[in-house]
Amino acid sequence: QVQLVESGGGLVQPGGSLRLSCAASGFTFSSSAMSWYRQAPGKERELVARISSVGGRTTYADSVKGRFTISRDNAKNTVYLQMNRLKPEDTAVYYCYALANGYWGQGTQVTVSS
Q1: Stretch 95-102: mean pLDDT, rounded?
Q2: Alpha carbons 89 and 62: distance in angstroms, whole number
Q3: Strands (E), the chain
């Protein structure tokens, strides 16, 4: 069955970095565009970044442009989100999403706080 398993979240100080990973299985990963979303307490889930199936096209939310980088390794069936210069407002649960089948991962908590 389809599985998306996120990892890499945690507690980091403002200005720090984290790299999230999402390991996919159960579908043809290389054929699916992939996205990262996030949801902060009391807020709606929002798109953070998206990458095309072969990785040649990426899009970002304005709030993370220049700080976050989405990438993928189709040989490892994994999509990544490198997050630099983190801010307290980046605190949220981050979710991986596969556009090809509409599946979500379980989420990983990112907390930015001193």
Answers
A1: 95
A2: 13
A3: 3-7, 10-12, 18-25, 34-39, 46-51, 58-60, 68-73, 78-83, 92-98, 103-104, 108-112
